[in-house]
Amino acid sequence: MRALTDADVERLVPINEVVEAVEEAFKSFSLGSAVMPLRTRIEATAYKGDILLMPCYLQEMNIFSVKLVTVYPENISRGLPTIHAVVLVADPSTGEPKVAAEARALTGMRTGAATAVSVKHLARRDSRAVGIIGCGYQARWQLLALTTVMKPDNILAYDIDRDRASSFVRRMKEELKCEVSLASSAESLARESDVIITVTTSKTPVVKAEWVKPGTHISAIGAYTPEMSELEPALIKRSKVVVDSLDAARAEAGDIIQAVDKGFFRWEDIHAEIGEVIAGRKPGREGDEEITVFKSVGLAVQDAAASKVLLNHLNTR
Ligand SMILES: NC(=O)c1ccc[n+]([C@@H]2O[C@H](COP(=O)([O-])OP(=O)(O)OC[C@H]3O[C@@H](n4cnc5c(N)ncnc54)[C@H](O)[C@@H]3O)[C@@H](O)[C@H]2O)c1
């Protein structure tokens, strides 16, 4: 069995292939061929941390993976990553473990891939202005994956931590070779963007309904517990809402759970799972004025798909 670091994973795995694999995996999941129980969440209450265990058998790709991911939002103030992760990948035909890998980078890639897939299927084709709220670890991967499916003219970035936002802007300008600038507020960013990505650890909404122009696509990545939220309930109400998994959304998608609890939205109002849109079972965007929201909580099928890409590249070396 091989043991890999995040640096190995980053060197080996092309992100465009992760985007394609995650698109396939979302489809397999919604068509019912992926074996993926709801993830187990253990709260380390004393440390305000979460420990998540995420197994998946993805039959079409002939892969089994199980990821242990920990989310400690207070780590960032101690100079430590919010997320740590490791993945164990096995061959389902023999059960033989093939790889044990650090999985921060893999998580970043497959989460960025979710946004990219949502943009491909739900954003207006003429979208050019991108805004990203939250400039932490995931943010870079969000933009690296996004730019495999669209070419933004301008990217605006905002974070409550202004220094973090400034260094993110500098790094992404260099890496993407496109216009990236600092937004003065979440409001100005939202008002100017065709595609908005929210990737924060916030427990209160970072985007208000009145700021969002018709035709915008929003990929809401951050909130993964009932207590967290990035989008105002009124914004959920105004939007066509697509999720990664209906079951996982009911259990974990704070943005939707809070909108339902406050009477703004009903569970039946969710338009589709993204996999249903990819498979052509439900329509994606149906007009230039629609506001579309993709709410991701993160699925183990994404880890399995990204692990498959990793394994493919290991096998060719
Ligand atoms: N959906 C998924 O599949 C998935 C996958 C990985 C991570 N996540 C979630 O994404 C979030 C971000 O992860 P990360 O690793 O980048 O964390 P991080 O701690 O590195 O970055 C979070 C950033 O959000 C900023 N922020 C917090 N509240 C804000 C607010 N109100 N307005 C603007 N910025 C704000 C912080 O200052 C920080 O820079 C976490 O909640 C994590 O659990 C989701």
Summarize it:
This protein has 317 residues and is of the alpha/beta class. The protein is built from 11 helices and 15 strands. Nicotinamide-adenine-dinucleotide (NAD) binds next to helix 3 and helix 4.
Structure description:
With 317 residues, this protein is α/β, with parallel strands linked by helices. The protein folds into 2 domains: 2-106 and 301-315, ornithine cyclodeaminase, domain 1; 124-299, NAD(P)-binding Rossmann-like Domain (Rossmann fold, 3-Layer(aba) Sandwich), CATH 3.40.50. It contains 11 helices and 15 strands. It has helices at residues 6-12, 15-31, 104-122, 137-146, 162-176, 186-192, 233-238, 246-252, 254-261, 274-278, 300-315, and strands spanning 2-4, 34-35, 40-44, 49-58, 63-71, 83-90, 97-102, 129-133, 154-158, 179-182, 195-198, 217-220, 240-243, 272-273, 292-295. Strand 8 (129-133), helix 4 and strand 9 (154-158) form a beta-alpha-beta unit. The mean pLDDT is 97. The structure holds nicotinamide-adenine-dinucleotide. Nicotinamide-adenine-dinucleotide (NAD) binds at residues 71, 76, 82-83, 107, 111, 133-139, 159-161, 164, 199-202, 206, 221-222, 224, 296-298. Nicotinamide-adenine-dinucleotide (NAD) is lined by residues 71, 76, 82-83, 107, 111, 133-139, 159-161, 164, 199-202, 206, 221-222, 224, 296-298.
